[in-house]
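question for whoever is on the cluster today: can someone run the full assembly for these? two chains, 552 residues total. i dont have access anymore since they changed the login thing
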Amino acid sequence: MLSFVLMLMLAAVHLLWPLAPLTLDPELSRTLLVELRLPRTLLVLGYGAALGISGAALQALFANPLASPDISGASSGGALGAVLAGYWLGFSQPLALAACGAAGAGAAMVLLLVLAGRRADSATLLLAGLAISLAAGAATSLALALAPSPFAFYDAFDWLMGSVVDRSFGQAMAALVPASIACALLLRRAHALDLIALGEDVAASLGYPPRRLAREVVGLSAVGVGAFVAVAGAIGFVGLVAPVLARRLTRGHPGRAMVPAAIIGAILLTLADFAVRAIPLDRPIPIGVVTALFGTPLFLYLIVTMRRGVAS
Amino acid sequence: MTALVAQGLALPHRLRATDLSIEGGQLVALVGPNGGGKTSLLRALAGVEDAQGEVRINGEPIAGLAEARRRALLAFLPASRELGWPIATRDVIALGLATRDEARIAALLDLFELGALADRPINRLSTGERTRVLLARAMAASPKLLLLDEPFANLEPYWVLRLAMILRDLAQDGTLVLVALHDLGQLERFDRAWLVADGAVQMDEAPADLVASERFEQIFRIIAADGGWTIRPADRQSSR
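^ ran it for u. tokens below:
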């Protein structure tokens, strides 16, 4: 509850700060708010929440705190899907980009399920995810190298760096609408994902076959993350870290951690975007770089605690 | 109403078509060699796998039943005691209930003497302690049919005896308890024993009759001797 209020306050500040340009001219400030600030605020909130929910759901499904959209290869798969769509259909087709991003993310996660299985140990999960990420990354590089024109190359490269800056309201909606539906459906699996903590057989004996649950979670989180990856590029670590923090609020329950993970994810990405704005450089640094810089120490902390045999 | 009826229950390569019909209020032991099908039979009865055939508990087919109804009818304790998440003992037991009921949780903590461990994350308990927590979880909703895979494994002697008493009390209240078992020393505590081998229930006898039978000797390759067991002469190869 407290974190939800904090998220709303941060969102309001994100939308309105810096205040100075808004006080000049009513017409100009309206345009600035609706066409520049609002899409950006909605994107960081929505993307952060989607990463938190999908990360929590994937961690619950794989019974592993290392499962997450970035490590499962979903983000890089989504990026590959969106780059290919960008070439064929142009980067000005946000809905098509979102659809192909989701398809790419889904394909990567289905591959992960096939390679590692649902109850993979951490090593298998990381290796399989790494292999998929590397393959998708290489394919994306190849796609860039074979760019049909220099303009297409620059379009794709610029987009790949991952940014929530200068996205239109239409682009934001193309990601927000399908991702919100997917996340809402994921939240309905919270109870089943709590029960699967007792083991797949127990969940199955209570009427939740793990195979069906795996299909649902993978499909829905692919849409939730892939749509945002397609519009704002791949952003790492939030989907990994937010669920870990969220489970401390739900006494370890992995399924019901999805709601706090959404709020924490939204807060983390909003904070990261504040950093993007606050760091004075000629051009804004990609938000994915910020999350990686702050996320890596948290990730290392997680690995150290896991080495001590205490799953978070 | 017959507590448990199974018709044509089968799993490809693991369980041959099985028909069962058992009254409630009994302790039934499933014994048999490794890989004989004890766990497969329990899993098929629990609806864990898409088995062929039909399972009915108190006349109600379990296929397609919603969670609340399933909880009232059956609970399954798998052989694995591993839980990945640091969920506290009392919360694990709560997951066995459709709606959280603190009085029921307290009673189960008391029954399994888990009061001191109530708030400890289950992944920091010993295997035997985890077994007690997961048993409490399975019994929480007072199901008509309790399917337990190796519940005595890893328990200290006190808890082996205590659990036998707890299961007997449940049976007296009308619960049907099916237990997959390796420790033949426990057999005498059961009302009936099923010999499960080659993916089928080969025999259904009183425990004493089962142990005395030639079939038992053939399948287990052991014989009773001096109040314990010994490998039968035909199977005694030199271990050197």
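summary bc i know u wont read the tokens: DSSP finds eight helices and twelve strands in chain B. The CA atoms of residues 96 and 140 of chain B lie 5 Å apart.
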